Amino acid sequence: MKLWMTAALIFLTGAVRADVLLTEDEIEQTLSFGPWPPSFQSDPSNRFSKDATAIKLGQALFNDPVLSVDGAFSCASCHDPDQAFTTPEARALGRDLLNRNTPSLRNLAGLRWYGWGGKSDNLWAASLHPIIEEQEMAHSAESLKIAISESTYIDDFEAIFGHLQDQSPELFLVNTAKALSSYLETLATDRTIFDDFRDALERRDIAAAKEYPEAAQRGLQLFLGRGKCVFCHNGPRFSNNEFHDAGVPYFLNETEVDQGRFGGLNILLSSPYTLDGNWNDDPEKKGAWAVRNVRRSHSDFGTFRTPSLRGVAETAPYMHNGSLDDLKSVIRHYSKIDTERLHADGEAILSELNLSEQEIADLVAFLVTLSKDS
Ligand code: HEC
Ligand code: HEC
Question: Which pTM does this prediction carry?
Fold first, then answer.
């Protein structure tokens, strides 16, 4: 740490101990959760990334049931823009009841993996899967092309992607997904009072930092310290975007399990829509090293991608299967975690925290400040 900064932090923690509870170390760690919003580069694998016309088309398609084979529902039916791009059901209802909870689609630009099990390594592939998934929108590339050709989108589509007859059904499908992806990239959660606090600490503006509630500060201290939450929930999105077993049972019934990352890798490694495939628009295929090098291992069973905690108060219920109703239940889950259930070779990091009611309330108070209007 630079000397002037050390001096400033000592000043901060020394002078206002009553109101800014964090130690020098905790302040340092807190700075790593920002700044917010982050800037994102355009996605080199999608040549329509940041293209205003593609974004507009993507948004219209997202909200239109033309993307499901029977015209029954749209992306927005599950990812409702008025409900933080999710819905309150524990498990998503498509043509069947799916095994998983619908994730909120904000802050997805530039991640390495998508989906609870990481079955995609780019955002347009993650947008493509639901269109052709049998349990979701169940189109084929052919039926999608026909449906959109007969819709009012056809002129916009040709203006962006060229003449219909020059697009094979598969190219048409990929183009549709890239328009959706351009739109999804623009979805981000707003700044919150946590960001004001974090930036005040950075500016050494004590008067502003004091505005942040003490309960939330105590929760943040647990998050960084005894709770070890920051081990997985780190960086400006509060996620390392990797796969872990957080002790959520993954049995679907007596005989079947949700394979989590293991199943995600099975799909990823046989998919034509990865960054290593022909549909990547980036001639250098930057980022393809990840899919080229990733290997399946038994310990991937039942691990899921660490969710971002930005906007988390708006997206109950929680976990990959929506099995926990509210944030308090999530904290109780971590507090009483059954370490016997965790992978033997895995998550030495999680242990029973035995939090008091006060500590549970503090952690919830902190998490709530990661959502707007908190
Ligand atoms: C039936 C409800 C449903 C519909 C319809 C649906 N989704 Fe999803 N979506 C889900 C669920 C459930 C997941 C988690 C899937 C998984 O991880 O296996 C998901 C995951 C995603 C992800 C990955 C998010 C992340 O955090 O990595 C993206 C992107 C996405 N959907 C976009 C779309 C788009 C675009 C459409 C329309 C073409 C769509 N979804 C239609 C339920 C739905
Ligand atoms: C070992 C990595 C790890 C640690 C440590 C960890 N988490 Fe998580 N967290 C995850 C994973 C993985 C999930 C998703 C688990 C699942 O769905 O099966 C998750 C889910 C959550 C969720 C639900 C989010 C949603 O959208 O469904 C919250 C809230 C949460 N964690 C908060 C915490 C808090 C608070 C702590 C500290 C007490 C913590 N986590 C510690 C990895 C971790």
Answer: 0.94
